Amino acid sequence: MADAKLDPEGEVGAAELKGKLPKARLDARRDAKREAIVDVARQVFFEEGYAAASMSSIAARLGGSKGTLYNYFKSKEALFEAYIEHACGQWRAWVFDLPDDDAAGGADIEAVLTDLGERFLGHLVTESAIRLLQLVIAEAQRAPELAHIFYDAGPGGGIARLTAYLEAAKAAGHIDPPDCRMAAQQFLSLCRGHLYFRYSLNLIPRPTPAEIKAEVGRAVALFLGGYGRP
Amino acid sequence: MADAKLDPEGEVGAAELKGKLPKARLDARRDAKREAIVDVARQVFFEEGYAAASMSSIAARLGGSKGTLYNYFKSKEALFEAYIEHACGQWRAWVFDLPDDDAAGGADIEAVLTDLGERFLGHLVTESAIRLLQLVIAEAQRAPELAHIFYDAGPGGGIARLTAYLEAAKAAGHIDPPDCRMAAQQFLSLCRGHLYFRYSLNLIPRPTPAEIKAEVGRAVALFLGGYGRP
Amino acid sequence: MADAKLDPEGEVGAAELKGKLPKARLDARRDAKREAIVDVARQVFFEEGYAAASMSSIAARLGGSKGTLYNYFKSKEALFEAYIEHACGQWRAWVFDLPDDDAAGGADIEAVLTDLGERFLGHLVTESAIRLLQLVIAEAQRAPELAHIFYDAGPGGGIARLTAYLEAAKAAGHIDPPDCRMAAQQFLSLCRGHLYFRYSLNLIPRPTPAEIKAEVGRAVALFLGGYGRP
Amino acid sequence: MADAKLDPEGEVGAAELKGKLPKARLDARRDAKREAIVDVARQVFFEEGYAAASMSSIAARLGGSKGTLYNYFKSKEALFEAYIEHACGQWRAWVFDLPDDDAAGGADIEAVLTDLGERFLGHLVTESAIRLLQLVIAEAQRAPELAHIFYDAGPGGGIARLTAYLEAAKAAGHIDPPDCRMAAQQFLSLCRGHLYFRYSLNLIPRPTPAEIKAEVGRAVALFLGGYGRP
DNA sequence: AATGAATGAGCTTTCATTCAT
DNA sequence: CATGAATGAAAGCTCATTCAT
Fold it and tell me: What is the pTM of this model?
């Protein structure tokens, strides 16, 4: 292997020849499998709910045995937690992807809020987000700490972010709400709205982008109508 | 039966001896027992959730046997549905108890909305309402028809009612929303708000009346700020 | 039924006709079943030991289902305890059947000790006694309270009884041990002896009555040789 | 390899590279590892009992993997047997360490018996001895050959030894038992006594040296009282 | 109508053992 | 030889449901 020097990972190949995978790679493999399991578990939890989902069916869909499942997660509860944390990680990624606050000084609040609202609601009506909420609410009595993780990673974080933005906008004199944190909560409540509520109850099919646009448009209108400074 | 007038209770006793109660009375008795069962089931469903609640524990708390339960409800699922319908009936009663629309012509919209909002949110954070929501959401995948019943009896009905009121107020020239149905949804979304969201996740204790007043006050302010006509 | 007055239980027959078994009879039935279960469990515990015995195999040998087993005993442990207590009850019956102490004043200590020793050892080498000891010793670490029950019902109680007898005999001047309780323990230890020890290890077949006689004879000889007063 | 003499340890290293250790050395290494495994297994068997001890926990405590375990012992049962044999070997060592019979001609039987008894009982109440007994008894049904190994190496061998001593003492005219083998068994039964019985049932804490002294003292007294020649 | 014993399928979990690397 | 992932059988236990009384 002539390019071994150019590609240090080539040496890893040599190690493999000796039957000794480097630890890092072993761990990576294990992590990949863990993720695969969590992904299958997610599907089953979605379809059946936590309580009704059985480890047997998860194992069957995985194509492996129950024993293997338990080699990776010490209990059904632990598997559920792993899924919740994984899903919250995705929320978190989304929340941290908000537009920079420095744009707050800029004039076009309407555009910013509209963009934010559409992305927020657009994410909420994602199948994975809706099912996550359903699972978390369903188990809220039994496992309140999961609800905590969920809230902080998702809605809670989003509100903090939006609050900061609104405060900047207020300081710049573009809006005038009495309490920016409350205003942020109100805006997101308006975005969530009835569309989302009904969808979360499985009463209507997944909202179309047009419906989302409309819902957010009305939310922005009311919000700026009430708090905007002309 | 000649002596019925003299000793009405005697009649019952005699009928019992013969094992033949008048049909109407039998039905009444059966219905009373059904209600008693549903009430016990409600408690257990609240405490344990649908899946974890066992017919045994319901029977035990009832002081009867499992067999008796099955004499009244043919399955656990049927018992659960009976409870949901019962609970929704209570919602319905609440909804029909909204203030009369004829007050709409009256000037004090703020007072009407505040009153409505406080009663709405106050009811939402009731233990029975929150648990009902949790159960319905948890089973929304498995049994979407339950969600339907729930929505129509509760939030859906409330929106219809409020829409009518807002239209009257708009006709009277007190407010000017572009779409009254949408406005009604927005107002209720604002009332539900984050307080309710967090409570439904078991993240905070039951909101106090003062907290409810504050949340609704801010909702009314934003709503009238946006849609009101000065 | 003409003799109903003479035989009040005849009325019970009438109750049965109405489909209502008297509570006492129901309980008796339940108790009978419990005993039957314990008896089957005993066999399986004997053959496999506590840990290796499975509820499935007990149920199978019973001809019933596992569910039924758990209707009568809430866990495998509970079933084991029920068996231990039952077996100890038999020990207790045997212990309380010792010859009356008032015979102690009588002269023939040799005959009394011989009789006692033979009955004691004869019972020890009973299959049920030997298996009981094996089970109790095997689980002594895990469940010391079972060992306590066993000891008090069997060996402990026997020693107390024998001690009383020896004290009477000492008062009557027939023997002269420095400490009667210790002497009682020594006598029983001698009776138990190596014969029993080896049998409890499954090393030899069940001792014959002749072997028992011989072992006890030598025990009595040594005991009276050491403590007797010529 | 010319430099082998200069660096003796280098030899080993070189051999390792070639994967060829001298056979004797390989075997020694293997045996050492086997012993280490058996020692760890012993601890786990002590703490959990045979059935409850898992190969996983043994491997974990060993710091190795289950696969390695199976490289050295082909099954859990085989590992258990190896432990029993090892433990019995220790018993054997102890037995062969008994005082020399040539002392038999000497006069002080009391001292000899006392010394023997205390060492015997002292060893019996050792943690390893008591747990060994418990394990052997627990598995006596399933694996009678283990009990055989155990008995021959321990109590059985001791009796043979003591019998020889007593015969010498009898020949010397110091004692006069009708049957020395039986007398030996009786003496050890007396030593074992109730103290040991109760300890083996986990009913009392480990006997103190003082308690052992007392128990043996009374055994010697009774034994010499019965069989001694004044 | 009421009872409660009986059932059997199914649950989560554990474990000895095997095998590719 | 060491590793640890994978397996599958079986364990203890629960529960909705049925049925004879």
Answer: 0.81
Q: How many contacts does C have with D, using Cβ atoms within 8 A?
A: 127
Angstrom distance (rounded) from CA D211 to CA D126: 14
Instruction: Give pLDDT, residue B160.
Output: 85
On whether the CB atoms of residues A220 and A117 are closer than 8 A, the answer is yes
Compute the CA torsion angle D155, D158, D164, D167 (nearest 10 deg): -60
Evaluate whether D190 touches D223 at the Cβ level (below 8 Å).
yes
Q: What are the chain A neighbours of B147 within 8 Å (beta carbons)?
A: 201-203
- What are the tens digits of pLDDT across the range A83-129? 999 998 888 887 766 666 555 555 589 999 999 999 999 999 998 89
pLDDT digit string (tens) for D185-220?
A: 999 999 999 999 999 999 999 999 999 999 999 999
Distances (CA, A) of A129 to A78, A94, B114, B199, D74: 20, 12, 33, 19, 51
Contact between D30 and D111 (Cβ < 8 Å):
no
Chains with 3 or more CB pairs under 8 A to chain C: D
C88 Cβ neighbours under 8 A, 6+ residues apart: C149, C150, C152, C153, C154
CA atoms of C32 and C118, how far apart (whole Å): 33
* C-beta separation of C90 from C128 below 8 A: yes
Q: Which nucleotides of E are covered by protein (CB under 7 A)?
A: 1-21
pLDDT band for A9, please (50, 70, 90 cuts). Answer: very low
Nucleotide with the nearest C1' to C52 CA: F11
Is residue C103 over pLDDT 60? no
Contacts 24+ apart (CB under 8 A), B61-68: B62/B36, B62/B37
Interface of A with B in 43-72 (CB under 8 A): 46-49, 51-52
The rounded distance, in Å, linking the Cα atoms of B86 and D31 is 74
**Three-state secondary structure readout of chain C:** CHHHCCCCHHHHHHHHHCCCCCHHHHHHHHHHHHHHHHHHHHHHHHHHHHHHCCHHHHHHHHCCCHHHHHHHCCCHHHHHHHHHHHHHHHHHHHHCCCCCHHHHHCCCHHHHHHHHHHHHHHHHCCHHHHHHHHHHHHCCCCCHHHHHHHHHHHHHHHHHHHHHHHHHHHHCCCECCCCHHHHHHHHHHHHHHHHHHHHHCCCCCCCCHHHHHHHHHHHHHHHHHHHECC
Q: Return mean pLDDT, chain C.
A: 84
| Structure confidence at residue A2 (pLDDT) | 37
- Per-residue tokens: D47: 């703490």
Cβ of C201 within 8 Å of Cβ of D147? The answer is: yes
Inter-chain touch B138–A49, beta carbons under 8 Å: yes
Q: How far is the CA of C59 from the C1' of F18 (A)?
A: 20
Helix and strand numbers (H, E) in chain D are 11, 0
**Residue D20 CB lies within 7 Å of the nucleic strand E:** no
The mean per-residue pLDDT over the stretch C117-145 comes to 89
Q: What per-residue string of b and e applies to D94-119 under the rule 16 or more CB within 10 Å gives b?
A: bbeebeebebbeeeebeebbbbbbbb
Rounded-to-integer distance, Cα B114 and Cα A131, Å = 33
Contact C222, D185 (CB under 8 A): no
Say which amino acid occupies B224.
L
Worst-scoring range by mean pLDDT, A71-85, B97-111, D168-182?
B97-111
> How far, CA to CA in Å, does A116 sit from each of A99, A104, A169, A186, C195?
8, 13, 15, 14, 89
